[in-house]
């Protein structure tokens, strides 16, 4: 894939959505009976829309640059839930190696089942833990990842704080938001980034998303994470830096 597949026109995007493995993933999201992992349980259409929104991230140049590098670094999907956007992007980009970070046991079970069903076991792993544990000083996830993906995790201030200790220097955070939320939370995200070593770069409108007003807010890791981060589990949400 890397050559032609890293240019995503409208036709290529439609073909991707119609692929058997992408449809199979939508069926798994809609049909999982043990946990409502996305809010789309029982609705194949809703699941397909969520996957389409995740795949709209293929419009983001920073993501394609990371996938197209000579030695792509590992990616992390923060608070993965049902595997969005991590599994969707792993299906689209065979060069991507993704760690799905999820702390809820039932959701971890779904992710493991889905990774197995879709044959992604060699490139996608499930870390059933809090991100703060994975990114603690001396832990294997600290400043390891070239890309951190985040969808429906929290405000930008929260997402930036949690992503920073996971990202290597020069890595990028891609936070999926509505445009309204991106504007409303921008100052908080910038303040958190100043404390954690991330700088806001731009807001990208995801024009191919089936969801209205969908955007990606891009941050870059510009300096090492201070030793005081991550804080204790849950503190980023309880006491945001902003």
Can you offer a commentary on this structure?
The chain is α/β, with parallel strands linked by helices and 242 residues long. It has one domain (2-238): 3-Layer(aba) Sandwich (Rossmann fold), CATH 3.40.50. 40% of the residues lie in helices and 20% in strands. The chain is built from 11 helices and 7 strands. It has a 7-stranded mixed beta sheet, sandwiched between helices. A hairpin with an 8-residue loop joins strand 6 (198-205) and strand 7. Helix 3 packs across helix 4 and helix 9 (156-163) crosses helix 10 (179-196).
Helix percentage: 40-55%
In the CATH hierarchy, what is the class? Answer: Alpha Beta
Strand content: 15-25%
| Biggest β-sheet description | 7 strands, mixed
Do you know the CATH architecture? 3-Layer(aba) Sandwich
Rounded to an integer in angstroms, the radius of gyration calculated over CA atoms is 17 Å
| Order of adjacent strands in the largest pleated sheet | 3-2-1-4-5-7-6
Which word captures the global form?
globular
The CATH fourth-level homologous superfamily: Vaccinia Virus protein VP39
What's the β-strand tally?
7
Q: Enumerate how many helices there are, as a single number.
A: 11
Q: Which blocks of ≥5 consecutive residues have pLDDT under 50?
A: 1-5
Write the layout of secondary structure elements.
Elements: H1 2-5, H2 10-17, H3 20-31, H4 44-55, H5 61-68, E1 75-78, H6 86-92, E2 98-102, H7 105-117, E3 124-128, H8 131-134, E4 145-151, H9 156-163, E5 167-178, H10 179-196, E6 198-205, E7 214-221, H11 235-238
Parallel strand pairs: 1-2, 1-4, 2-3, 4-5
Antiparallel strand pairs: 5-7, 6-7
Helix pairs in contact: 3-4, 4-6, 9-10
